[in-house]
Amino acid sequence: MAESERVPVKRKRRRPTSSGVVLSADLIIDAACELIDAQGAQAFTVRKLGAALGADPSAIYRYFRNTEDLLLALADRLIGESMADFVPGGDWAVDLRDLTLRAYRSALRHPQIAVFSTVRVTGRPHEQRAVDTGIGLLLQAGFDDATAVRHYHTLVDTALGHAAVDAGVLRLAPAQRAADEQAWQAEYGNLPADEYPSLHRVREQLLLMGGSAVEPTLDLLIAAIRQEAAERSR
Amino acid sequence: MAESERVPVKRKRRRPTSSGVVLSADLIIDAACELIDAQGAQAFTVRKLGAALGADPSAIYRYFRNTEDLLLALADRLIGESMADFVPGGDWAVDLRDLTLRAYRSALRHPQIAVFSTVRVTGRPHEQRAVDTGIGLLLQAGFDDATAVRHYHTLVDTALGHAAVDAGVLRLAPAQRAADEQAWQAEYGNLPADEYPSLHRVREQLLLMGGSAVEPTLDLLIAAIRQEAAERSR
DNA sequence: ACCTGAACACCGTTCAAGT
DNA sequence: ACCTGAACACCGTTCAAGT
Questions:
Q1: Which nucleotides of D are covered by protein (CB under 7 A)?
Q2: pLDDT mean by block of 10 residues, chain B; 234 residues
Q3: B207-233 burial string, b = 16+ CB within 10 Å, else e?
């Protein structure tokens, strides 16, 4: 239904923009990808995208109803790219971890995507393929339908969530990022032992709080799911 | 260091705004909370906050350097509120789950917070208290310092991440939210069995993809951490 | 048929001027 | 000392007018 409301992608006649480019939905998504990769996600605005295309920003609304619609198309493109070279290796748990990490990485390229719940539900081709693959791995592990769906839901939301959190760091300039990583040490490393006994005890380890927690998180989730599969098969 | 750059909270003389209110950092945070609770997180803008206070928006910049600084103070307020009635019950794993869920709920009240990596590192009082408590529970479980920090990092980032993802749904109007939950069924429930075998097989269960995955996720993480603690103590 | 340009209704933030 | 109001540099989106 969302699909039928979209502006048709195929057009009979085209008129070039003032800069000579003939617009299309694909071309707009191409430009959006380039803009994000070159200047970061915060550089992505309709007006800047128009400028990058050499077209008036309002022309974009002929191809996408609004920014959200454009972002959904972009999301599916990113999912497609990150899944392009995925080949299952035979161990469902390893494959599932790989698949989830790919979802994380594609969401990290454009963090706003992770926040759209709707992105999970648009039913665009690359996403459908990825969901089918993920649930397939869980069925292969021996889970019943409901449990397979639940575990898939858990993994994909966790991947998107960590992408949203980690994107905050990525947004910073490198110098500020380094400062931010040490800030844990600076802010928490010198607290009094009587008031904050645990923080005081682990003060040497606080640098670990910098950086992404996505891999440790996935390791724990996959371990728990593997354990559950093993118990189920007994 | 961030602290010393902040505008001092205590002031000698105050002048009321045109509406008669005497501003203070606390009062501004009060108003921000009310605004968010009454009209949702997307209603939170400096200009609207000024209007809610009966003051010119620019007056807010006397108390907070910028929106981010204000959001950090707001975050600490929300953390404090959600931790206010936390009492450890004796089982570290149960307590840790409770603590993490509280972090999730407080971030859910203002989703932008989850995306600030910096929020995790500001070292404000309520946050320090919560971190000390969380790491304390993991030390109590028998983990070494580095592992305790790593597991804490995993839990808190996962809580913030799910809050960011779930906030997308919360943002929708109730009617649209219901439609969104059924969209999984609509978009994925009728795919051909030959092309999407796994999705076709679990099609009756796809409603499970609506709603939050935070509790299933926490259950898996806590199970894995508990298992690791048990193995460690052997 | 499609792009353009003006317009509308917003933002966050700064700073000189007021009191 | 603190608040105000104008101003600056942006946003997303709509729609009549152009070609």
A1: 1-6, 10-15, 18-19
A2: 38 68 94 92 94 97 95 92 93 98 91 65 86 97 98 96 85 70 81 95 92 96 98 88
A3: ebbbebbbebbbebbbbbbbebbeeee
Interchain contact A185–B (C-beta under 8 A):
no
**DSSP per residue over chain A, as a string?**
-HHHHSPPS--S-----TTS----HHHHHHHHHHHHHHH-GGG--HHHHHHHHTS-GGGGGGT-SSHHHHHHHHHHHHHHHHHTT----S-HHHHHHHHHHHHHHHHHHSTHHHH-GGGGGS--HHHHHHHHHHHHHHHHTT--HHHHHHHHHHHHHHHHHHHHHHHHHHTS-HHHHHHHHHHHHHHHTT--TTT-HHHHHTGGGGGGGSS--HHHHHHHHHHHHHHHHHHHH-
Q: In angstroms, how far is C1 C1' from A51 CA? A: 22
- Residue A16: CA atoms inside 13 Å, Cβ hemisphere, count? 5
Helix axes B145-170, B92-109, angle to 10 degrees: 40
- Distance, in Å, from the CA atom of A181 to the CA atom of A40, rounded to the nearest integer, reads 20
**Does the model's pTM come out above 0.85?**
yes
* CA–CA distance, A27 with A77 (Å, rounded to integer): 12
pLDDT, tens digit (0-9, with 9 covering 90-100), for B18-41 = 777 889 999 999 999 999 989 888
Q: Is the dihedral of CA B25, B115, B163, B218 positive or negative?
A: negative
Q: What is the pLDDT of residues A15-67, one digit of tens each?
A: 788 777 889 999 999 999 999 989 888 899 999 999 999 999 999 999 999 99
Compute CA distances A17 → A24, A53, A60, A141, B196, whole Å: 11, 9, 11, 53, 40
Q: Which nucleotide is nearest to A65 (CA to C1')?
A: D13
